[in-house]
Predict the 3D structure of the following.
Amino acid sequence: MKLNWFSPLAPAQTDIAHYTQRVLPALSRRAEVTLWTDQRTWNRSINELAEVRRYHDEQMSWKDLNRADVTFYNIGNNPRFHGSIWQVSRQFGGVVILHDFRLHHFFDGLYRVKQRDLNSYLTVMAKYYGEEGRRDARSSYQNDARNIDFMAERYPLTDLALENAHAVLVHTTDAFDALRKNQQWTLAYAPLPFPMIDQPSDSTTRNRESKYRLVLFGYIGRNRRLSSVLKALAGLEAKGRFHLDVFGSILNDERDLRNQISSLNLKPHVTLHGFTAEADLDAALSCCDLAINLRNPTMGEASGSQLRIWAHGCASLVSRVGWYASLPEDAVSFVRTDENEIADLQQHLRAFLVAPGRFAEMGARGRRELEDKHSPDAYATALLKTAEESLNFRTQAACLKLAERAAVGAARWLSPKQAQDSYLRVAAEVLGWSKRS
C-alpha cells in the first residue's frame, strides 16, 4: 500500500514529530510511505526510511497526492505545526490521526491569533454549538481567550478538525467512546506507540544518602502544574534530599517562573535546562528516581512523555484525569487535580523517601505495560487496517457530501426540519444506490 503521511518532523519541537520517527521504521516495512512537510529542514536520517516532500497548503500537488492509496493527517493542538496539515485535510480526504481530542486551543490559535478572523471563528462556533457557542466565542475573542481552558472543555471543536475525514484514529478510549456514535467516518483506536529501550534505569541501586533526582519534562505550559510542584517541594521538610531537573521550553513567562523559584528559596534545588535533545533527555531519565508528569487540564491526549518514562523503567506521578486516570494503579502514583494537588505531591515524595524500592517496582510495572500494549509494530498494523477501512468508506463519504449539498440547496426554500428530512432522504437514496452499484 502507498501512503501519504502529513506530520511535523524532527527536530520540530513537538512530540508528534518524535512520534512519527518512532512509528516510521515499523510502518515503512509494511508500506511505501511518502512524508509531507512544510518545514525547511528535518533530520536527514528520516530519508533512509521514506521519501520526504515539501509542500505549501495553497500550492498542493493534488496529482502527486492521488498516487497514494490513502493519506494520513496528524492533527494536534499547536497551529504552528498542524495548521497547514488541517488546511490540506479539508481539501483532500483521508485518515485523521487525532492526537488531542479537545482542539479549541488549535482553532483559537488559527482564527484569533494568526488570522485575526472573528467572523470565521463565530461562523464555525455557531455551526457546531448554536447561538450560545457563538456568543461565548465572541466574548472569548474580545478578551484574548483568557478563558481558553473553559472554551476547550465546553466547545472542543473536534468535529471541525474531522470535517473531511474518511477515517479517524484515536489513542484513548475516552476519545473513541465520544466519537463512536458519529457515522460520518470509520473510527479506530490504537494505543500510542513507543519502542522499548534496552537498558532501563534501576532506582534501587542509587545511594540513599545522595540527592534523589526528580525530572519534569516536555513543553511546559500551565497545565504541566510546575508551579504546584515547586510549592510542594518548597513546603517539604526534607526538600534537601531532592533535586528537580526541568527539561523543555517554558511556554509561559519564564521570568515569572524563575522569580517563583527564587522566592521559594529553591534555587539550589531546581535546574531549568530549557529545550533538550532527545538523547540528552533519555540520558537524564536513565538516572532519574522519580518523574513528574502532571496534566490539568488535559486536552484528551495520550502521553508520549509517560511512555518515555516507562521505557526507562522510571516511577512517575501523574494527574488522575483523562487518559492518565486509566493507567494501572500499580504502574503510576496518582495526584488529585483539586485543592489536594500540593498535599498529594508532598505525600508521594515523603513516601518515596521511606520506601524508594516500592517506587522502583512501580517503574518496572510501567515498563511491562509499555511492552504489552504500546508496540510500534502493532500500531503500524492498526494503521494499515484503518487505511483499508477508509478505502471502503470513501464512496460512502462522497455520497454523504452529495446529500449534504442537496440539503443546503433545499434549505433556501424549506424550513430547517424539512431541509433535514430532505437530507436524510437523499442520503438514504444515494447510499442505497452506491451499495447496489
In short: The chain is about 50% helix and 15% strand. The radius of gyration is 24 Å. Residues 201-208 have pLDDT under 50 and may be disordered. The first strand starts at residue 2 and ends at 6.
